[in-house]
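Priority: low. Protein: IQ domain-containing protein F6. Input follows.
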Amino acid sequence: MDTQNLETAAIKIQSWWRGNTVRRTLLHAALRAWVIQCWWRSMQAKMLEQRRRLALRLYTCQEWAVVKVQAQVRMWQARRRFLQARQAACIIQSHWRWHTSQTRGLIRGRYEVKASRLELDIEILLT
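Result:
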């Protein structure tokens, strides 16, 4: 083989080798980029999940606060109605007791004063 053919063969081998090393370097770079992209997507998914959980936790806290306030208002309203009913019952009872004490029995009587003594005739009628 002459030197011309040897140079051509050497150039072909060198270009093949350079092509392989460049392709291998590009493949490694692409794999590294792919790994980084996968990691970044997983981190984004985790951050999104954390934000979603935080938003859900805040929402549930607000909902519980609303429920507690509503329960307190309902309890206050029920207590107010109870106290009004109790006061009305006390008023009705006091009026009823006064009415029954006034109409329970009729006292009929007469009295006369004669000289030095009091003559008293009382008749109590219970109805």
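The longest strand covers residues 105-114. The two ends are 151 Å apart (CA to CA).
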